Amino acid sequence: MSIEKGNLSIHSENIFPIIKKWLYSDHDIFARELISNASDAITKLKQLSMMNEATIDENTKFQIDVVLDEQAKTITFSDNGIGMTDEEIKKYINQIAFSGAEDFLAQYKDKSDKEQIIGHFGLGFYSSFMVAETVEIHTLSHQKNAEPAIWRCDGGTEFELEKGHRQTRGTEITLHISDDGKEFLNEYTLRSTIQKYCSFMPYEIYLTVVGKEPSKDDEGNVIIEEPKPLNTTTPLYVKSPSECTDEEYKEFYKSTFKDYKEPLFWIHLNMDYPFNLKGILYFPKLNTEFDTIEGQIKLYNSQVFIADNIKEVIPEFLLLLKGVIDCPDLPLNVSRSFLQNDGFVRKISNYISKKVADKITGLFKTERETFQNFWDDISPFIKFGGLKDEKFFETVENIYLYKNLDDQYVTLDEYLAAAADKHENKVFYVSDVLQQAQYIKLFKDHDLDAVILSHGIDSAFMSMIESKKEGVSFVRIDADINEHLVEAETMNEEEKKEATEKLQEMFVKALGQENLKMKLEPMKSESLSAMIVLSEESRRMQDMMRMYGMNGLDPNMFKTETTLILNTKHSLVKHLIENDKIEASTKSLICEQLYDLAMISHAPLSSEAMTKFINRSNTLLLKLI
Ligand SMILES: Nc1ncnc2c1ncn2[C@@H]1O[C@H](COP(=O)(O)OP(=O)(O)OP(=O)(O)O)[C@@H](O)[C@H]1O
Could you say which architecture CATH assigns to the domain 236-368? Predict the structure, then answer.
């Protein structure tokens, strides 16, 4: 065969500059494309052999080799798969591969927004021109009496095809790397790129670096190292769950996510119908110290990595987990607009969501203690899941746990049943254990219980539960004086009115707060002089305003009112009511101090108030000596 020169059947002269421009940020996919083509070529040969249409030597070891030659500026990908005849090159490389490039161009040439091309568009073989100035294919088909062939193209629209000299079946593709791709001439970069996309490819991939000095031991002797593949050909998720041990699951987690904390538990997904999907989802142990949740779900198509965290396929709340999902029915080249509108993708997402909901409800029912041990770590996922996904909520609604004041984990029904004779359908909660310690003590002293809801997600979570469970309401522990904390009134109406007016005047004067809201209550606890309450509605309004405040709105625009409760059973308060002979300055000192003490257990004092509080405390101490 003489050299055949030809024009690629392409209508645009300058397709490559456009491809390069559009795919610039993703140009490492050439490695994925060439290696997956090599892998396909091996699979095709094996299939033909099974159909008796190809003969394979029984000692054949199928593998893919990547050779990096930094000096020559080349990267070569070779396989011992099916190979191509010159006719096949014309058909598959000249026509088909270019038609992919043309489709790409047709779809994207008018779009000016780079973000529109999310994910990876399949340019297959031609993605190699994103990093190479010339690409050369040396190939020999498996077919009897096939002639080897060489194809060459410099990224323009012309190619050369001539008789080759390859002697073994398979294909070798050499990329003469251009300036755009020179980062891949670095061994580390090339290795990481291959590992990113090809870690689970079904055939072993070896990387060789031409001219690399062999490693030596301390005495200077060359260490003979067995070449190691860059990938695992049978990742754990392809096995049947019954064949996997806990140790293997943990090991797979560690090596895949480089997370050395053990996962809490995992879900092995394995289904063939109505779609093919395999994978493992792990519930990671949270870094509670910083409260960060960084999930990672890697998506694969037949063991070829597609992308991370594609929220169209994985329900958003599950992106907080870590895991791998392999679905051969998904396109390798996912474009987000396609996924968003795809009913099939939605089915996958629903399936995954259901599996997770079933697994955790199962765990709750059969191993409640283990479930409780996990609860602090998994609750953000499950709460977020409930907020995001109605169906998920319906499955898990009865397994949400609440930690009570005795550090026990109870369900909503259990809490409400235990409190039914004291406060029906009302859930008292603590949002900050330290800040609200005073109120917690009060509750405990009076045999009342509350639950701890202190995570960032909890305000949204409580509103959701209130909207789903009719009649149930959440009230913060310091929202109001509970009837169980108050004794029967000993003052008559007239006396109470008089005392209230007297103290109101005293406090308004001392604090300089004209609109101070105040109430006298005979509280059961004699040690508590005063406390501040803020109605639940006001507090939620305040929280909301704080949220909007982040977007530039001043939360102080909407002042919320607190009420100062004075305990008429406390000696100091009694003294203020009954003794008319207290010096004005002492009176003022007591009022201010009582107010600050109440305030401290409600919210942090401002720096100005804190300074005053400290100075006043010192003044009071001085009075003792
Ligand atoms: N290493 C190889 N061995 C044998 N045939 C190959 C090899 N690489 C490419 N081919 C042939 O060239 C064709 C075009 O490859 P290309 O990567 O452009 O597209 P594809 O693999 O069909 O689709 P995709 O866009 O998903 O990659 C392949 O379908 C295959 O027939």
Answer: 2-Layer Sandwich (3.30)
- The answer to ipTM > 0.95 is yes
439 is written with which tokens? 């109120």
Residue 161 contacts residue 90 (beta carbons within 8 Å):
yes
For domain 488-536+556-622, which CATH number applies: 1.20.120.790, 2.60.120.620, 1.10.101.10, 1.10.10.10? 1.20.120.790
- Using the atom order of ligand 1, give the atom closest to the CA of residue 126: 18
pLDDT of amino acid 284: 86
Comparing CA positions, the residue from 280, 430, 444, 258 lying closest to residue 355 is: 280
Cα(37) to centroid(ligand 1), Å: 5
Answer yes or no: are the C-beta atoms of 402 and 411 closer than 8 Å. Answer: yes
pLDDT tens, residue by residue, 67-80 = 999 999 999 999 99
Measured distance CA(523)–CA(489) in Å, rounded: 9
Handedness of CA 328, 334, 336, 339 (dihedral sign): negative
**CB–CB of 237/268 below 8 Å?**
yes
Instruction: Give exposure, 444-478, as e/b (b: 16+ Cβ within 10 Å).
Output: eeeebbbbbbeeebbbebbebbeeeeeebebbbbb
596 CB within 6 A, ligand 1: no
C-alpha distances out from residue 380 to 253, 291, 352, 432, Å: 21, 10, 18, 17
82 lines ligand 1 (CB under 6 A): yes
> What top-level class would CATH report for the domain 400-477?
alpha beta
Spatial separation of the C-alpha atoms in residues 231 and 304, rounded to whole Å: 11
Domain ranges of the chain: 4-209, 236-368, 400-477, 488-536+556-622
Distance (Å) from CA 39 to ligand 1 centroid: 10
User: Is residue 171 in contact with ligand 1, taking CB distance under 6 Å?
Assistant: yes
Q: Does domain 4-209 have CATH number 3.30.565.10?
A: yes
Tell me, yes or no, if the two domains 236-368 and 400-477 fold the same way. Answer: no
Interval 558-617: pLDDT, tens: 556 788 999 999 999 999 999 888 888 888 999 999 999 998 877 778 889 899 999 999
For the Cβ of 140 lying below 6 angstroms from any atom of ligand 1, the answer is no
CA of 376 to the centre of ligand 1 (A): 49
With residue 115 as reference, give the H or E element that holds it.
none
Of ligand 1's atoms, which has the minimum distance to the CA of residue 173?
A: 1
Q: Is the pLDDT of residue 335 over 70?
A: no
